């Protein structure tokens, strides 16, 4: 049995915070505003996994009203949700994702992101795609006010 899930996240760029995407610190003058570390890529992947399992979304599972999640490293949340996937008897077949940002350039960081995500999610590099896109200077992302991400995941029931 196969299950497909999609995930999406967007956060506003602000001064005074580190920019963390895909679990990697990215050199930039601004970071993303959020209750956790605001890692849009990991949040989109988490929501895709939760959607594939027909579970609650990331905001319900890890509410921003709970102080224990304040500034939490999103890789911790990812590990927790991946454990839910395994507990339900599924494995990840593949992930396809996009990081949409006008700046900074993501391509130099994507290999490190993929390495980290492969380790956490126990998948081979050929089973995860992380692509970088811009908004061609359109909307809030294109005007460098925010960064967004989306992800699709395919899960397969273990035999």
Structure, explained:
This protein has 159 residues and is α+β, with helices and mostly antiparallel strands. Helix content is 30%, strand content 31%. It is built from five helices and seven strands; from the N terminus they run E-E-E-E-H-H-H-E-H-E-H-E. The chain has helices at 40-52, 58-61, 74-87, 110-121, 139-142; strands at residues 2-14, 19-21, 24-26, 31-32, 90-100, 128-133, 146-157. The strands form two sheets. It has a five-stranded mixed beta sheet. Helix 1 (40-52) packs parallel to helix 3 (74-87). The longest helix is centred in the middle third of the chain and has 14 residues, at 74-87. The chain is globular, with a radius of gyration of 15 Å. The model has no long low-confidence stretch (mean pLDDT 97).
Reconstruct the topology from this structure.
Layout: E1 2-14, E2 19-21, E3 24-26, E4 31-32, H1 40-52, H2 58-61, H3 74-87, E5 90-100, H4 110-121, E6 128-133, H5 139-142, E7 146-157
Parallel strand pairs: 5-6
Antiparallel strand pairs: 1-4, 1-7, 2-3, 5-7
Helix pairs in contact: 1-3
- Rg estimate, integer Å: 15 Å
Strand order of the largest sheet: 4-1-7-5-6
Low-confidence stretches: none
For the terminal residues, how far apart are their CA atoms? 9 Å
> With helices defined by DSSP (H or I, 4 residues minimum), what is the helix count?
5
Q: Report the major sheet.
A: 5 strands, mixed
Shape: globular
Average pLDDT works out at 97
